[in-house]
Amino acid sequence: MMMYRVALMLFVLVMPAIARADEPRVMIVSIDGLRPDLALRADMPNLRSLINDGSYSFWARTTPVAITLPSHTSMLTGVLVEKHGIKGNDDNAAANEKILVPTIFDLAKAAGISTGMAAGKSKFSIYANGSIDHAWAKSGTSDKVAGQAVNIIRQFKPRLLLVHFPEVDGTGHSKGWGTKDQIDAIERTDKALGMVLAELEQQGLRKDTTIILSADHGGSGKTHGKDDDRSAFIPWIINGPDVRKGIDLAQFRELKIATYDTFATACHVLGLPLPEDTDGKPIIQAFESVDLMNAPATKPAATQPVSRTNPSTIDDAGNPVAAIFLSMPERPGPVVQPYVGAAVDPDRYPQAGIPAPQPSSSSDTLALEGGFQFNDVISADFNLMTDIGPGTQPTRQSE
Question: In the chain, which ranges are continuous DSSP H helix?
């Protein structure tokens, strides 16, 4: 009997993570330095599969500085560089500069969502501050990153995963943007992406995973940076269980997509409330369940922002509640519980104050449902580009 108990305990300790089928999941893929036109030139069957079965734009913009660490931090916090405070772009900056606002990993961790990261540059260690359950950040090839991502998916199945491929950027700096060498690096990275997608499928997670694929900047010559459109434009592709298929988001004329929107859209999928000073917006036009016909034409039809200092609601006991409001476009999925709790650690994030998500004692929940389908549009004079309206305003950027 004692041996049986010991064996059972060992089985529990080594048993791999088991994912619930009804849990929304997000994988953010960043192909460092991927200029949109080069993605179209290269042979990228895996990226094209995400486009064909998803929504996309090749006119998204990164931060004005267009360098790796500040731009990725904006991608993962949803705010301008001036707000998150990361100005440097090397390991020294990663060790000494402090992110002044919560990352999506911080918000997810506070909500009980498992997290992971596989990144091909060591400076990404700046994000591994305790909010990433399983993190790997070392200099390496796209294949090496893919292998680490596959291991994290197979063993731990995090609901939020960042995968960062470095090789396209490295080849741009050594050989030049748009060269044959860089095209070869892009194609190798696409094969590495295919390894990660195959593992999601193998683990039965692909059907529940929303993938957002983007970049931190483009480039020209052998560099990248501010005041250069070839550095500023990035691809933005979303694919997942509730995403419209084959939709070029440039059809929505007033919609301007920026890197900050990656954070906001991932929060939308995971049911995380947005801080009130978020510069990004959920790209709701990409989702099947959003009723675009009734979406406001001049205001973001998105998650109601949660005040960092004055939460918008309180529960019956007088505790601040950071919840998803009824004004948010409804989307399918499990019931979402409101959250209550104290602010995010002010010592770590002096500019933050969003209530840390904890299960509420309140029994109130918000049931989320599906809605509009493009097949529902039957009017002969309906014009997709003008009649739906943008539903958002352009993201604010510094000069």
Answer: 2-14, 36-41, 45-52, 68-77, 81-84, 91-96, 104-110, 142-156, 167-175, 180-202, 229-232, 260-270, 384-387
Using alpha carbons, select from 211, 210, 212, 219 the residue that is nearest to residue 186.
Answer: 219
Q: What string of DSSP letters covers 102-123?
A: --HHHHHHHTT--EEEEESSGG
Residue listed under structure tokens 């990361």: 86
Crossing angle between the packed helical segments 180-202 and 45-52, to the nearest 10 degrees: 60
Per the DSSP assignment, residues forming a β-bridge with 27 are 161, 211
What is the per-residue pLDDT for 192?
98
Structure tokens at 232: 């500023």
| Rounded Cα–Cα distance for residues 8 and 377 (Å) | 57
Q: Please check the confidence at residue 35 and state whether its pLDDT lies above 50.
A: yes
Query: Predicted confidence band at 295 (pLDDT cuts at 50, 70, 90)?
Result: low
Q: How many residues does the chain have?
A: 399
Nearest alpha-carbon partner for 90 in 142, 125, 130: 125
Which amino acid does the sequence have at 347? D
Order of strands, edge to edge, in the sheet holding 160-165?
A: 134-137, 115-119, 160-165, 25-31, 209-214, 233-239, 55-61, 247-248
pLDDT tens track for 47-106: 999 999 999 999 999 999 999 999 999 999 999 999 999 999 999 999 999 999 999 999
pLDDT digits (tens, 9 = 90+) for 356-396: 444 433 333 333 233 333 333 323 343 434 443 444 443 33
Q: How does the average pLDDT of the chain come out, rounded?
A: 78
Cα–Cα–Cα angle for 299, 304, 305, rounded to 5 degrees = 100
